[in-house]
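Replying to the earlier thread about multi-chain prediction with a worked example.

Input:
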Amino acid sequence: MPIVLALALGVLLGLGATTFLYAEGASYLSTDPAACANCHIMQPQYDSWQKASHHTTATCVECHLPDDFVGKYLAKAENGWNHSKAFTLQDFHQPIVINEKNSRILHENCLRCHGPLVHAAGAAAEGAAPRCVRCHASVGHGETTGLGAPWAGVDAESAGTVND
Amino acid sequence: MRTYVILIVLVAAATAGVTALLLNVATRKSEARTPFVRLVEVDEDTTDPAEWGKNWPKQFDTYKLTALATRTRFGGHGGSEAMPHQKSEVFPFLPRVFQGYAFAIDYRDRRGHAYMLSDQEETERQEVPQTGSCIHCHASVMPLYRELGDGDAVAGFEKTYAMSYQETNAMLHELGHGHPVSCVDCHDPGSMAIRVTRPGFIQGIRALAEGDAPVPHLPSIQRWREGTRTAPYDPNADATRTEMRSYVCGQCHVEYYCSNKFKLTFPWAEGLTVEGAEAVWDSIEFEDGSQFHDFKHKETRAPVLKAQHPEFELWSQGIHARSGVACADCHMPYMRDGATKVSDHWVRSPLLNISRACQTCHHFPEAEILARVENIQSKNFQLLQNAGAAAVDLIDTILATRAEGATDAQLAPAFQMQRKAQWRLDYVAAENSMGFHAPQEAARILGEAADLARQGQVAALRWRSGGAAPDPR
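Result:
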């Protein structure tokens, strides 16, 4: 019986390793922006970033992941799980939208470089100012793609009341 | 023993899961690598969309959905009844302003692309003789034009205005091309590149380029104007990809002359505005020396114009065109299908597909976006009703003053006001966006329509005080 189990585990291990290699699993541990477009969902984001102003100074992960080691890999793991689940089950909202947690990470990364410059304007204070991309929507993904601006904070209650 | 069995079952389940994942990854990878498989050859004469559908099933599947009945607050087809409602049920002024014209007989709300040919064949407007020009935009017509022109499509096209609709339609079916707008009308069968084919559009956009009206939303025309102009403007060679994504729709969703005195004509030489088209029509004189008109109003006898459906033109005046947003961006937005990106060929109102059509740029909840659109449209609806009431009042006033003894010569200024007012009214009424394609422009046009109709009443009533009618402003 132990032999059967050993064989079964071996098959699982081999299959798992093959799947990992075939799905380019290792690329997700890198910082290569091309890896973010592996599954093609992020292709417009990848293409537009190449034409946007921050192309020369920041890659995907420098804006979209925390800078500290633990935070970075925790966020990678969480987003990796969310993205693979959504793409495998094909059950996600289109167009894709940044979530609140990732939006906060993004803002902190703006401040990581630009903090000293905007500190006087109060932008660095938590909750005290709108997030940078509210106005600077084009810096990451360019002017015309419609990508980059945050989801507007219109709550469900006030949405749809223009006519009243 | 029991532990081993449980472990083996667990490992088997995990292995099955990993295998399923591997297969899923493989499927997505192959989707990305092979977006289509060319199973059958298609060429310029393949008008049957089902043939193309064998190669491009994703696009064909959504194309077929244009047969579904769809409805928004202000347009479309409710679904339960066989045909869309008569527009006069919503706009009571329509039959009155169209007196003496076939649109007073039958004028229904829109249906999807799938019905464009059958609806045209069945409309009661066919009780009045119609020209072969109409086929230009209701069928996959290019092979018929080549047949009529001995290989030269433009020559064939220029023959059809003098033919009857029935004769042209019968030829179309005999040649086996009795299909609504089809793949080949907008795609090159060799490369699948997006392209325009309609002679009316190609001639119209050429006239627009050769004029000097501003077209800030069409940069390739600007570049052509500044260039050597050795060859005429050719949308298929000169236009950008974004422009082409509107040009294909502009082949038909436009204002045009479509009757039997001369060929189908897009009035764009003076620009894409309501005044530009009016100037072109006003500059034309019929062979008998009379002023160009689409019909003589049966009650007032004024020579008036009928607007078709100037969606391309009104969009041209709006903020979306100015921002580089093409027709297809909202009416055929990109959608995901596995790992591939497909243009949705279910051409329909963006309001039925708000997430893909609007939220790519407008990062608001769907309810918020819908409310903003309905806010614009309901205001336009009200302005439309006001302008329509004014146009009907003008007709009544002309009839009343004629009954009192005013002559046609004395009423001539009022006739011109009726012409101008109805043209503006109909320009927005016939346009299929309830003002949304350019809200401020639509409001301006409707404001003018009401004003001109009231000025026409003043001109007619001036007769009562014995004074000559004032010249139109």
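The interface with chain A takes residues 1, 4, 7-8, 11-12, 14-15, 18-19, 21-22, 24-26, 28, 32, 323-324, 335-336, 338-341, 355-356, 359-361, 363-365, 367-368, 370-372, 374-375, 378 of chain B (CB under 8 Å).

Feel free to reuse this layout for your own posts.
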